[in-house]
Write a sequence for this structure.
């Protein structure tokens, strides 16, 4: 009887498939994936994690949000809002958060309510400093203008990310 139970457990374990992927970086212990910001005016994106790999392109947009999806030594594999991936040195990244407006023109509102007065109209591609989020709204700063935008209208913050205190 005991042997049959153990065998049944082994069969169930085998059917469960591989263990889920790690949710923390092997180098930093920080969550993977996570959002960060490009620190410099020019950031080389390489084909692999090291200076010996060729530069595939150069970002020329400081403060652009990117998503860290892997770590290797001092290199981070990133993905941008278009889904393009590559490797950058950790020194080119900052933990200070930004978001980028996606879709069409979006309204920045005074309060986190659909009927709140608008503060500004934001074009797609506008980068804003992220102050925090409450449910489906995020508080942002765009060139000194503070306001709220629907979370679904920006890229650079997860849907399940903790709410602002």
């Amino acid at each position: 009887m005991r042997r049959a139970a153990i065998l049944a457990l082994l069969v169930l374990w085998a059917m469960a498939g591989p263990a889920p992927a790690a949710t923390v970086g092997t180098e930093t212990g920080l969550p993977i994936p996570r959002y960060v910001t490009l620190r410099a005016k020019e950031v080389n994106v390489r084909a692999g994690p090291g200076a010996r790999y060729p530069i595939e392109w150069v970002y020329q947009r400081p403060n652009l949000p990117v998503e860290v999806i892997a770590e290797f030594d001092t290199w981070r594999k990133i993905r941008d809002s278009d889904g393009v991936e590559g490797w950058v040195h950790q020194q080119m990244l900052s933990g200070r958060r930004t978001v980028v407006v996606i879709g069409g023109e979006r309204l920045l509102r005074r309060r986190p309510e659909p009927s709140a007065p608008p503060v500004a109209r934001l074009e797609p591609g506008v980068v804003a400093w992220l102050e925090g989020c409450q449910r489906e709204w995020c508080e942002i700063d765009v060139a000194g203008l503070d306001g709220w935008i629907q979370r679904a209208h920006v890229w650079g913050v997860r849907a399940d990310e903790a709410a602002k205190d």
